[in-house]
Amino acid sequence: MLFNSLQYILFVLIVVSTFWVLSRLRMMRVLLLLFASWLFYMSWSPIYIGLIIGSTIWDYCLGMWIHRSQLEWKRKLFVTMSVVGNLGLLGLFKYFNFFMKATEDVARVVGGVTIDLPFLDVLLPVGISFYTFQTMSYTIDIYRREMEPTRNFFHFATFVAFFPQLVAGPIVRAKDFLPQLEKPPRVTRAMVGTGLFFIACGLVKKVGFADYVAVNLVDRVFENPANFTATEVMVALYGYTVQIYCDFSGYSDVAIGTGLLMGLQLPDNFDRPYMSTNPAEFWRRWHMTLSTWLRDYLYFPLGGSKKGPIRTYVNLFLTLYLIGIWHGASWVFVLYGLTHASAMVIHRFFYKRSGRSPDTLDRWQVHVFKVALMFHFTVLSRILFRGTSLDNVSDVTRQLFAGTSSLANVSAGVWAAILVAMLIHWTPRRWADAVQHRFVSAPAWAQGVALAAVAAVLLQVATDEVVPYIYFQF
Predict the structure, then answer these.
(1) What is the number of structural domains in the chain?
(2) Same domain as 82, residue 41
(3) Which residue has better confidence, 417 or 112?
(4) Last residue of a domain, which of 137, 164, 184?
(5) DSSP state of 118
(6) Are residues 221 and 363 in the same domain?
(7) What is the pLDDT of residues 213-270, one digit of tens each?
(8) What is the full DSSP assignment across 268-329?
(9) Residue 261 near residue 290 (C-beta atoms within 8 A)
(10) SS3 annotation, 51-71
(11) 155 an active-site residue?
């Protein structure tokens, strides 16, 4: 059930309207959200609903046992069971085949031995990288005594499976979400307006920019890079940089907007990442709920920056490397993680040697240069993110430096989509805030007219091909 489908719009209308009919009946509205979320998940992969229910029961019970245990060794045992269970589930479905294939490759290349290892013939459960992190953070927070477990199983199950963000985030913390379920729902006119605005923006990003650029240039270039010139490949990389941002942030916008229609607030996941001046700032702005999750549950527990410079570099490298391979089980994502981890360590090394204060402001020319440099580092690293294999990455890279310079395969529509998307991204924040305020404060009829106009435009530019959200594969 794609967000950019009539099926999802009807689904949301039914769920939201029923939710408010049941607004005074806490248990009933929670059960509505839970079963609607399970139904939404089953529309993707019915066979895997047992996994998400099993994961829910596992961490609900372990959370209660951690809280009730007085002996520290028992608390550590139970939280370890949670972490091992969640990572084991993730590793089995997402990384098992990659590890088997990598072992075969290493044995063949290094030892000259050909071995045949077993592989799992299963599909990756949709959203598993997201909901396992959510349930794991729940038990860890209880172990740290940063929250108490909920005694209501259905509240916890709704937190795990809440349908707007279940498939591709943002990653939600239980201590932020569960209290919202326990209180009577409250929604204001401004929240509804903001929710509709976010949903509209998300659909414009997905349908108007991401899908259009993907179908009309990016997918064709990565499928057959030899058919395109170097300049066309470079434009395709700009296009993919636009596509992945609009695709993923568009999903997050629709998720946040849908939650607001029911008075439920989800965390922001993007903050204009292509305006970053360095790798550290980029990861503070891109997929923020994943970055902060790994910061709080990996980087800080490893010691952060408090155990000397060498340990700091190791912690940074490991954290960024894991961000890379979190995205996928293949050699291209191994290289993607190594690339960004290395960039983060190099940036920190030279930043510390410069002796600059964090509050030091650059001249605008220097600032623009840094933004452009970081942006193009991101663009070029997208070859690894989008490449389907090491051979495909090699082919695209070779064609990028082929020295050919025609732009015959780049249509005016693609140029317009890339340029408009980037101009919007780089406009002053106050302009975007002003547009949002204008929409939210407008009367209902004016909002309806604006949304109808957006829908009409999207129907005109929508591609005939269904383009799944990129982060569904993670």
Answers:
(1) 2
(2) yes
(3) 417
(4) 184
(5) -
(6) yes
(7) 999 999 999 999 999 999 999 999 999 999 999 999 999 999 999 999 999 999 999 9
(8) ---S-GGG-SSHHHHHHHSSHHHHHHHIIIIITTTTTTSS-HHHHHHHHHHHHHHHHHHT-S
(9) no
(10) HHHHHHHHHHHHHHHHHHCCC
(11) no
Same domain, 312 and 163: no
**447: phi then psi, degrees, rounded to nearest 5:** -60, -40
Cα–Cα distance, 327 to 337 (Å, whole number): 9
> Of 253, 270, 256, 238, which is closest to residue 422 (Cα–Cα)?
238
Q: Indicate which residue of 67, 155, 287, 327 is catalytic.
A: 327
In a domain, 413, yes or no: yes
pLDDT value of position 55 = 92
- Greater model confidence, 463 or 196: 196
Residues 322 and 448 in one domain: yes
Amino acid 304: pLDDT: 84
Question: Does 171 share its domain with 203?
Answer: no
Q: Contact at 8 Å (CB) between 196 and 257?
A: yes
Same domain, 356 and 212: yes
CB 379 within 8 A of CB 237: yes
**Given the structure tokens 């929604």, which residue do they identify?**
187
Boundary of a domain, candidates 168, 184, 200: 184
146 and 238 in a single domain? The answer is no
Distance CA 282, CA 382 (A): 14
Predicted TM-score (pTM) of the model is 0.92
